[in-house]
Specification:
The protein is of the alpha/beta class. Helix content is 45%, strand content 13%. The protein has a seven-stranded mixed beta sheet with strand order 1-2-3-4-6-8-10, sandwiched between helices. A three-stranded parallel beta sheet has the order 5-7-9. Helix 2 packs across helix 16 and helix 12 (262-271) packs across helix 13 (278-289). It is globular, with a radius of gyration of 20 Å. The two termini are 33 Å apart.
Length: 378
Amino acid sequence: MNGDRISSNQSIWIEERSATGGVRLGYAVLNQPASLNALSLESAELLDAALSGWADDPSVACIVLSGSGERAFCAGGDLRRIYQAIRSGDASYAGRFFAREYRVVAKIHGYPKPILCWGDGVAYGGGLGLLAGASHRVVTEKSRLAMPEISIGLFPDVGGSWFLGRMPGRIGLFLALTGLHFQAGDALFLKLADAFLPAEERASVLEERLPNLPWTGRAEEDRLLLSRSLREWARPWRSSIAPARTRLDFDRIQSLTDGDTLQEIADKIAYGPVSTDPWFAQGAENFAEGCPVSAWLIWELSRRTTRMSLKEAIRMETVVACQCGMRSDFPEGIRALLVDKDRKPQWSDRSIGEVPPHKVEEHFQAPWPPEEHPLRFL
């Protein structure tokens, strides 16, 4: 990138560029392509600081958030680093990471200036959380999105319990329990994205068209300017968007999640008529092999966050995530998926029916007094 001022480290590039109207654009590029641009504690801290500085700088009109390489925007948190910290005895690392990551996501959701997020390629977990919070979200034909935390002994966090619960019907609950991937058309239908553009348009949009828009430096005017521009740039590509699977199969998803208890829904997902459809069959397999405690956390969060604000939900997620970081299922899930890669996690409970209620409830007990909650000042 050829910006005017650059501060960077190995994991993230922070850059400013001059734009029309005498203003500047702030660029943040997650830069760990080998790990699909996974977000580390260090990169989260740098992104947090950059966002804070740009918010207070009247000469910066718009922020651009993207990932380096062609494979991913962001695959979520740097799970290997979290695993190493837990195994080395650094019990507080996971909690510090979650608190910083959630702080960044909350900041993006409430940011005072437009943020354009280029959600090309993989956007899993924390990556989807970053994308979902931006004011202007672009997906491409290569976008592959998911909240797959049930496979690693966690739960859809980074605001996931909030935005999943606001999807049409019970689609959010279904995607959380199955960890299924979805694509650009689904992201638009589920209101996780605002515009579809081909991946090949990235350089043209981010490096040429954006800096040449008639920016004013007035946030609301610039927000409208960006919205109208994206709509115009996306218009020629509307027919290129594949139909949303979640929209086409809305009734089936509703049927599979129609139950008053987690066990009822689990039975439907596991034993429903899914064998002829690979997507639903994969969902049933993901759920069957997923962490039983995670399934309960997903269920409980879907109930408890129904009437919460985003900030309240993120504060609750912080408590639950910190508890996960202090228990065995989370590192075991990372080990099985990413470290040893045997895909045979030994969960602390063999099925959702064997998880004692007190164990679930303990995840919602803060390990600190209210005045010490790390995100009390959100």
